Amino acid sequence: xxPMTLTPELDRLVARSxxxxxxxxxxxxxxxxxxxxxxxxxxxxxxxxxxEPAGADTQYRIGSISKTFTAALVLRLRxxxxxxxxxxxxxxxxxxxxxxxxxxxxxxHTSGLRAETDAPWWERTEGYPFERLAPQLRxxxxxxxxxxxxxxGFAVLAExxxxxxxxSWEESVRTELLEPLGLARTTVRPRAPHATGLAxxxxxxxxxxxxxxxxxxxxxxxxxxxxVGDLAVWxxxxxxxxxxxxxxxxxxxxxLPRGFSDLPGQTWGSAFGLGIxxxxxxxxxxxxxxxxxxxxxxxxxxxxxxxxxxxxxxNTTSGMPPTLGTDIWSLVDQHLPPAAEPWYADDxxxxxxxxxxxxxxxPAPYVLAxxxxxxxxxxxxxxxxxxxxxxxxxxxxIGTSGYYAGERLQVVRRDGVPHHLDLASFxxxxxxxxxxADLPGGDTGPWA
Length: 448
Fold this sequence. Notes:
Keywords: Hydrolase. Residues 349-430 form the DUF7586 domain. Residues 10-321 form the Beta-lactamase-related domain. The chain has helices at 6-20, 66-79, 103-107, 130-133, 151-165, 169-181, 228-240, 248-254, 324-335, and strands spanning 25-32, 35-43, 60-61, 198-200, 207-209, 225-226, 259-260, 270-272, 277-279, 286-293, 296-303, 308-314, 357-361, 364-370, 376-380, 387-393, 396-399, 408-414, 417-423, 426-429. It is 22% helix and 23% strand. With 448 residues, the protein is of the alpha+beta class.
């Protein structure tokens, strides 16, 4: 449950934002571990006085948040062994003009592919099949060079999914994602109760209804409609995975930053993993995606460590309050601080105790310690290369982070006792440059 003081403050913030920024309707939710703990709405579904009020069950178009669903379908193919993310597009969709780009580059917006289709503006017009889109595919930047957001890239990925599944993108979304996760209020076309997509006149209190179409080949870039409740579940899935959809390890790989917005004089605040947007406010890793389509703006963010999240849905083409997300997170930090997990002893760690303690890389001391989950950390005493390790087989560990990510740590025993560690050609010993450890480079001789 949310503290009783959070919801009234959220109500006030949402009501003030909706009025001051003249948003037809605004619905916000604070989530935790996939559940809505507080929600607030202001305005009506069509922006008219006396019409149906917006609420937690009101559907809004979520725009590019749809891309995270497309990415999940692609990663399911990867986990099934159908493709690898480093595969060239030509291996799965032969005959295009961009066959050299990789699946990973398309997912991370680093393929250099054009951002949009040929005119007319696809977001306000009826869609067409991929056969008509295919001749429009071209790179505007070298592949792999830099971040260049591409709606078209996700249409290409949807076609890869369709070719392998033998069915449409929307059918794969329904059967592989929505049904297993119970997302009954997430659909390709709007279902009542839903908001109307609206544009607000910049200089008068007048509204214009935006068109709504099925975008067919471009649907994977921004077609879906959803609610704050369904997006709470989806956000937790992006954080933790689901045994019937994607493993947590796959979601962790999807969250690794690959495409950065690197502008002179600026530090990066957001990046793209494999179809997921990653932000790093004050060193706190958040994941999700933003969304915009004519008549709608949306945003989903989840804190990876705490499981807290924020969903914002509006039915306006432009005019989202620039500080709204920050203001909501401030309320979350104030009213839902992360709970301090108690510490408990773990007798199962006794069998690994002989690995722990100080080890030396040459003369430099490192400390090998057990984590609460039974994995290892190798930390320098002072400056150096810190890494985590997961168990792989008896006395073999694989790096999970830092310099040694993916590298193999072998525990070498003598008479059953750990004698030294072999790690990526480096030898760690119990004493500095241990002369009995067969160190690279020959005999070390005595210290003098």
